[in-house]
Design a protein that fits this description.
The complex is a heterodimer of chains A (115) and B (109). With 115 residues, chain A is mainly beta. Helices cover 0% and strands 50% of the residues of chain A. Chain A has no helices and 12 strands. In chain A, a hairpin with a 6-residue loop joins strand 6 and strand 7. Chain A is globular. Chain B is mainly beta and 109 residues long. The relative contact order of chain B is 0.34. The model of chain B has no long low-confidence stretch (mean pLDDT 94). The chains are: A mainly beta (115), B mainly beta (109). Chains A and B meet through strand 6 and strand 11 of A and strand 5 and strand 9 of B.
Chain lengths: 115, 109
Amino acid sequence: DVKVTQSSRYLVKRTGEKVFLECVQDMDHENMFWYRQDPGLGLRLIYFSYDVKMKEKGDIPEGYSVSREKKERFSLILESASTNQTSMYLCASSSPDRGRAGELFFGEGSRLTVL
Amino acid sequence: GQNIDQPTEMTATEGAIVQINCTYQTSGFNGLFWYQQHAGEAPTFLSYNVLDGLEEKGRFSSFLSRSKGYSYLLLKELQMKDSASYLCAVNGSNYQLIWGAGTKLIIKP
């Protein structure tokens, strides 16, 4: 069964802490994405990557960075967490077929609370 | 700007049929996707339309009209487990998905 795995389902952090969210996929997908989801706003793209060592900013990259050292792993980093980064974070992957690039496979999500 | 509109919430009865509409205005179009998301879970892929017309998959069907910037998801023989949010997303000009805010569907017995 294909899978996208996120390291933590629930995290509670304090303002100013550094936060790492890990995502691993076993489908050999080139494309990987990080979204955040907030009520009434839909999914917003933070960063994405089409290949190892490659990263592109999405719609809301401020306050975040990413790392893609291996094809199967895409990490999201909050250098200094703030309360407005309290959210559900979703990792996703997709195949490089551009027509089907919108068929995303999501991880279970990481609900982050910043106090 | 780019925009995707869908109703915030809908209510339907078990066993009935419901249609969830999605209208979009995007700078490019490379397909429209519907996802289902149960509360507290990740979205899962339901359907993909790139050409005009109806795509049927069991109890679920999705329709697209590119000239009208319009799609709908049709759910038949509703079951309680269909209670979820349904997300409409368009693959835009740069092959990035543009998401609607989602429609929360409540099924009543």
